[in-house]
Amino acid sequence: MSPRFVLLAVAAAASLATMGTLRAQAAEPIQPIVPAQQVNLGMVELGKKLYFDPRLSKSGFISCNSCHNLSMGGTDNIKTSIGDKWQQGPINAPTVLNSSLNLAQFWDGRAADLKAQAGGPIANPGEMAFTHTLAIGVLESIPAYKREFKQVFAKDKIDIDQVTLAIAEFEKTLVTPNARFDQWLLGRKDALTADELAGYNLFKTSGCVACHNGPAVGGNSFQKMGVVAPYKASSPAEGRIAVTGKDADRFNFKVPTLRNVELTYPYFHDGAANTLPEAVDVMGKLQLGKTFTKDENGKIVAFLKTLTGDQPSFTLPVLPPSSDATPRPTPFK
Amino acid sequence: MSPRFVLLAVAAAASLATMGTLRAQAAEPIQPIVPAQQVNLGMVELGKKLYFDPRLSKSGFISCNSCHNLSMGGTDNIKTSIGDKWQQGPINAPTVLNSSLNLAQFWDGRAADLKAQAGGPIANPGEMAFTHTLAIGVLESIPAYKREFKQVFAKDKIDIDQVTLAIAEFEKTLVTPNARFDQWLLGRKDALTADELAGYNLFKTSGCVACHNGPAVGGNSFQKMGVVAPYKASSPAEGRIAVTGKDADRFNFKVPTLRNVELTYPYFHDGAANTLPEAVDVMGKLQLGKTFTKDENGKIVAFLKTLTGDQPSFTLPVLPPSSDATPRPTPFK
Question: What is the pTM of this model?
Answer without folding.
Answer: 0.93
